[in-house]
Each structure stands twice: as structure tokens, then as C-alpha cells.
Automatic annotation (TrEMBL):
<keyword id="KW-0503">Monooxygenase</keyword>
<dbReference type="InterPro" id="IPR036188">
    <property type="entry name" value="FAD/NAD-bd_sf"/>
</dbReference>
<keyword id="KW-0560">Oxidoreductase</keyword>
<dbReference type="InterPro" id="IPR051209">
    <property type="entry name" value="FAD-bind_Monooxygenase_sf"/>
</dbReference>
<keyword id="KW-0274">FAD</keyword>
<keyword id="KW-0285">Flavoprotein</keyword>
<dbReference type="GO" id="GO:0050660">
    <property type="term" value="F:flavin adenine dinucleotide binding"/>
</dbReference>
<comment type="similarity">
    <text>Belongs to the FAD-binding monooxygenase family.</text>
</comment>
<dbReference type="GO" id="GO:0050661">
    <property type="term" value="F:NADP binding"/>
</dbReference>
<dbReference type="Pfam" id="PF00743">
    <property type="entry name" value="FMO-like"/>
</dbReference>
<dbReference type="GO" id="GO:0004499">
    <property type="term" value="F:N,N-dimethylaniline monooxygenase activity"/>
</dbReference>
<protein>
    <submittedName>
        <fullName>FAD-binding monooxygenase ktnD</fullName>
    </submittedName>
</protein>
<dbReference type="InterPro" id="IPR020946">
    <property type="entry name" value="Flavin_mOase-like"/>
</dbReference>
Length: 574
């Protein structure tokens, strides 16, 4: 008998483009989902498509000077891939990217990833219970094989996140500027900043990192601020080689430190959800004191007034920095608060008939955050588009699943962003939940069937009513400020409404009654219609006092043991 398939092929058909799971995006979300497939027994039959040329998602895109994370490095890492070697308390972009590249290598993710590849459109095929996803080849040689192809998968995962597509400001004349223009997330390092006149539009978390760096080298810098931000001290410092060694060889200490970081950050939740809490007041005072200390005296009174926000703290992302305010004391830096009227061929005009000339215009104007999945077109059961489902604002059950979108999940989707803690904690919880959904679809396939699983619209509606009611009491809802957390209608589509721990608890089981499940092979994968798994416990479980008491007791027991052995030896000797 002749072998019908004499050439070895990969499970995740490289040439046939057939896989159990298609993951869109090789950032932290896509990587974590893929790694959990491997770790949780869902196999390696997955393809990851990535528009960029490297893993890392936002950490591969944000290459601007000064780019770093505003969450401590030991908390901004995967719980199952701790990194004792972080060199600073707050990690820089390149160090985070290095970490993610190492993790991708460790789990051999590169062989699954197709870089320079863009998802154009995904359509659910109800006849076969599969997704057909149209992929464009962006690389020049690759596209000689054909500009597009289709991947067929049983499950589709979006890991594109919320900070993926740059938002260019809608300002008259932007196209007419003849100098160099750069969006912050598309930095051109070949452009020499020395002796240049630079304008930067925006003063959010990104601009606050760029401004101190470029001010040091450019001729002059004008910062266009529309709304001031709450800024608090950062207190970043290197982590010494000795401390790194302790974290490496005494992992308990590192875990303890991470738990302490987690506890501290979780306590910040009250700043946003209880304006009467002492921690809310403390945050406002810390910010005001920071401003007064960094720009002191009468000389800077006018500057301080311009930089002082007049809305609830937490409504916009609080900025954590020590070098932002002092930059405005530099001779070569100007804070421009008059509204921009127009961008001209050689600069920016502001109200009051004034004009600033520039060589470079930096657009630190954020991302298209409320148009989740943009610009990918997705059509679910009966051809219904996600745009149609989200006509009045994006929403998803637990931020992951969407009615009429079978066998589909998102990470870092609607209402899962945090104002107070590390997003990686949320992503890990989502990845485990999504892997439980994938497991059920795979189990049906192994039985020779196929399933179609989507959340019940009533469940999703009730869930959204609940979280929106909670969010309406938060500082995110303050009508005196706009932020990337809300859509144009003012609906908070981006942020989670509670603590990380509450999200972890809520997403550590699936109640299958909450889903419409159709098709053959609906294998019971859990007890009482529910599948559960342990959440990743990050917070402190046992107090330091108890640990010290435990250590004292243990030390006492050891000492007593040694003493009695010594006494015994003495007895034997005599
Ligand atoms: P953000 O936080 O969305 O900030 C965008 C900034 O750009 C903000 O200061 C805006 O002013 C300003 N902006 C946007 N459009 C305009 C126009 N048309 N005119 C003037 N100013 C404008 O983006 P970032 O990149 O800083 O940060 C995003 C997240 O990335 C951050 O929170 C971290 O989680 C990482 P506004 O405040 O709206 O008046």
C-alpha cells in the first residue's frame, strides 16, 4: 500500500492553513493563550498571525525615547515565568521586549507565528462550525506567493488589545505640515533630534515619558496640553545584583515581593471607586505636593496652575513620573495651553493668532481604543457583523465572549482595562478561561463532532448592566474629563469595574448554562454543568507577622531539636 501522505507535515498546517485555533496577535495576550494551550493540554495545533515583525505587541510598537512601564517589573511579568533578573523597579521597553522574546523562545512559539501578516476579515461558517479568516501577506517576497490566503480554524482568539491602532488627531491641516511627523507608537530613530525645533501634541502617559528625554537633546520643545493630568512620584531605581540573586535563589522572597506589589496596587482600586476614601485624598495630596515640590516658588506659580487638574483623580490614567514637571523648568521647553486652531506647512497655530515653527511634530495622541478589533471585519452566525452588535458601544461577557460570535474570544477586550493594577494579571485569567472554552470545542472534535458555543444574549446584557452600574459610580465617569476609557457617547467601554481578585474569581469557572451550545459531541467536561480551575493567587495570603511567627516557631523547634540531640549526645558520651 502506498503512503497517502509521504511528507511529514505540521499539525497546524503551514501549507494547508488549517488549525484548531487561530490567534490574532503575538503580544502578551496571544502569547499567553498559546502558552496555556501547551500547558493546559490543548496541544500545539495553533497558528498565530502578527502584523509586526516581532513578538511583544505594544512593547514592540512603542519604541519612543523614555518608553517604560508604569507598573513594577515584578508585577508586570507572567506569574508562571517570573524573572528574577529585572534590572529596574520599573522596566524599560527594551527589557520587557527581551523578556517576552525569551518567553516566546522557551515555549517555541516562533514556529507558530506568521509575522508581517494581517487579518482582514473573519467569517463564521455555520455549515462546518469553523472560522474562515482572510489573511493578507504584508512582506514583499511573501506576497509573491499570493497576496491573501484563508485560515480555517475551530476557534478564533483575538489578542489585539486596546492600544494597537494609533489615533491621529483630527486637526485641520495635519496633512499640510512639511516637516517630519511621527506618531509616538511609530518612532523613527533615524531622525536626529539634535538642534531641532519640536512640537508634541498630547501630554498623556506616553508624552510624559517622551518629553523629558527629547527635551535634553533638541533645540526647543513646545508641549501642547489640552487637559492637565494627575501626576504622582515614581521613585524608580535599579535592582542591585545582590537583590537579583536573592530573587533567583530564594524564590520565596521574590514571590513575597510580588504579592506585596499586588496588595499595594489592589488597594489603589479605592481611589477610583470611593472618592471619600482616605486613599483618594492621599493620592490627590501626593500629586499636589509633587507639583509644588518639583516646580516650587512664585517663579512657577503660573506653570503650576496650568499643570493642576480640576477633575477627579483616576478619571484619566494617573501619570507616574519624577522627571515630567521639572522638564518645564528648562529654558528650552514651553507649555502651550491655548487651543490649537490649525496645523500649517511649517508648524502649529493656536488661538490668539500665535504660531509655533517646527522641524518635527510628535503626535502623542493615543490609540483607537474604543473601536475594539479595528480595522478587522468579523462576521458571526447568520453573517452578523461585530460592528452591528457593537453599534451602541463595545461589550463582551467578562470582556471575552460576544453573542452571535461562536467559538470566539478576546483578551484585553471591552471593560477589562485597569486603572490601578497590572493588565497581565487580567490576561492570565482570560487565557485560562478561553482555554477552557477551547478544550470543550476540541473535546467535541475528538468525538468526531463539532460545537458552536456562544454566550446567551440575556446573560451578557445582565452582566453589562451590572458592571455599567458599578462604573457609573467611579471616577472614570466624571463628566469633567474625557479619556480613552470612554467612547464618544461617554459610555465606559474599556475599564473593568472591580478589583483584579474579583475578576480572577469570577473567571475561574465556566457555567455552561450561560452559553448556547449547539452541534455534535457536547462532552461533559465538568461537574454540575460547570468547569472550574484554581485562579492564580497573587495577593498576600499570610501576613508577614504570621510568617515571622512561623519562622520563630520553626527556629525554636530546630533549636530545641539540636539542644535535645546535644543533650542526648552528652548522655551517650557519659
Ligand atoms: P492618551 O492617554 O489617550 O493621551 C492622548 C493625549 O493626546 C492626551 O493628552 C490628549 O488630550 C491629546 N490629544 C488627543 N487628540 C488631541 C487633539 N486633537 N488636540 C490636542 N490634544 C489631543 O494616550 P497615551 O498614548 O498617552 O497613553 C495611552 C495609554 O498607553 C496609557 O494610558 C498607558 O496605559 C499606555 P486630552 O487629555 O484628551 O485633552
Amino acid at each position: 500500500m502506498t503512503d497517502p501522505n509521504p511528507y511529514p507535515t505540521s499539525d497546524y498546517g503551514r501549507n494547508t492553513n488549517r488549525a484548531d485555533v487561530l490567534i490574532v496577535g503575538a503580544g502578551i495576550s496571544g502569547m499567553t493563550t498559546a502558552i496555556d494551550m501547551i500547558r493546559k493540554g490543548n496541544g500545539r495545533n495553533f497558528i498565530i498571525v502578527e502584523r509586526g515583525n516581532q513578538v511583544g505587541g505594544t512593547w514592540n510598537d512603542q519604541r519612543y525615547p523614555g518608553c517604560c512601564c508604569d507598573v513594577w517589573s515584578h508585577l508586570y511579568s507572567l506569574s508562571f515565568e517570573p524573572n528574577p533578573n529585572w534590572t529596574r523597579e520599573y522596566p524599560g521597553q527594551e527589557e520587557i521586549l527581551d523578556y517576552l522574546i525569551d518567553v516566546a523562545h522557551k515555549y517555541q512559539l516562533y514556529k507558530h507565528i506568521r509575522f508581517n501578516t494581517s487579518v482582514e476579515e473573519a467569517r463564521w461558517d455555520g455549515a462546518t462550525n469553523t472560522w474562515k479568516t482572510r489573511i493578507a501577506r504584508l512582506g514583499s517576497k511573501d506576497s509573491e506567493f499570493g497576496k491573501e490566503y484563508t485560515v480555517t480554524s475551530d476557534f478564533l482568539v483575538s489578542g489585539v488589545g486596546q492600544l494597537n491602532v494609533p489615533k491621529y488627531p483630527d486637526i485641520k491641516g495635519l496633512e499640510s505640515f512639511q516637516g517630519k511627523t511621527m506618531h509616538s507608537s511609530r518612532w523613527d530613530w533615524d531622525y536626529d533630534l539634535r538642534d531641532k525645533k519640536i512640537g508634541i501634541i498630547g501630554n498623556g502617559a506616553t508624552a510624559a515619558q517622551i518629553i523629558p528625554e527629547i527635551a535634553k537633546v533638541c533645540k526647543n520643545l513646545t508641549v501642547f496640553q489640552r487637559t492637565p493630568n494627575w501626576v504622582v512620584p515614581r521613585d524608580d531605581k535599579p535592582i542591585s545584583p545582590v537583590t537579583q540573586a536573592i530573587y533567583k535563589y530564594v524564590p520565596f522572597v521574590r514571590r513575597r515581593y510580588r504579592a506585596a506589589c499586588m496588595d499595594f496596587r489592589e488597594s489603589f482600586f479605592e481611589i477610583i471607586f470611593d472618592v471619600n476614601s482616605p486613599v483618594h485624598d492621599a493620592m490627590m495630596s501626593a500629586s499636589k505636593d509633587h507639583l509644588a515640590a518639583q516646580l516650587p516658588g512664585e517663579k512657577y506659580a503660573e506653570l503650576r496652575e496650568k499643570l493642576q487638574p480640576h477633575y477627579e483623580v483616576g478619571c484619566k490614567r494617573v501619570i507616574i513620573t519624577d522627571d515630567y514637571f521639572p522638564t518645564f523648568a528648562r529654558e528650552n521647553v514651553v507649555l502651550e495651553t491655548s487651543p490649537i486652531t490649525e496645523i500649517t506647512s511649517n508648524g502649529v497655530a493656536v488661538e490668539g493668532d500665535r504660531h509655533h515653527d517646527f522641524d518635527l511634530l510628535v503626535l502623542a495622541t493615543g490609540f483607537k481604543t474604543t473601536q475594539f478589533m479595528y480595522p478587522i471585519k468579523i462576521y458571526g452566525s447568520n453573517g452578523r457583523s461585530i460592528e452591528d452588535i457593537w453599534a451602541s458601544g463595545a461589550s463582551a461577557y467578562l470582556g471575552m465572549t460576544v453573542p452571535s460570535m461562536p467559538n470566539f474570544s478576546m483578551l484585553y477586550g471591552p471593560n477589562t482595562n485597569l486603572g490601578h493594577n497590572s493588565i497581565i494579571l487580567m490576561i492570565e485569567a482570560q487565557s485560562m478561561y478561553i482555554n477552557a472554552l477551547i478544550k470543550k470545542v476540541k473535546a467535541a472534535k475528538q468525538q468526531g463532532g463539532s460545537l458552536c458555543i456562544e454566550p446567551k444574549p440575556r446573560v451578557v446584557q445582565e452582566y453589562n448592566n451590572e458592571i455599567q452600574a458599578q462604573l457609573s459610580k467611579s471616577t472614570f465617569a466624571d463628566p469633567n474629563c474625557n479619556s480613552w476609557y470612554k467612547n464618544e457617547a461617554g459610555l465606559i467601554t474599556n475599564n473593568w469595574s472591580d478589583t483584579v481578585v474579583s475578576y480572577q474569581k469570577r473567571t475561574s469557572s465556566i457555567n455552561w448554562d450561560e452559553f448556547d451550545i449547539q452541534g455534535e459531541g457536547n462532552v461533559d467536561v465538568g461537574a454540575k454543568g460547570k468547569t472550574s480551575w484554581p485562579r492564580v493567587v497573587e495577593e498576600t495570603q499570610v501576613s508577614n507577622t504570621m510568617i515571622l511567627a512561623g519562622l520563630a516557631t520553626a527556629a525554636g523547634a530546630v533549636a530545641a531539636g539540636m539542644l535535645s540531640r546535644g543533650t542526648l549526645r552528652e548522655v551517650v558520651r557519659h
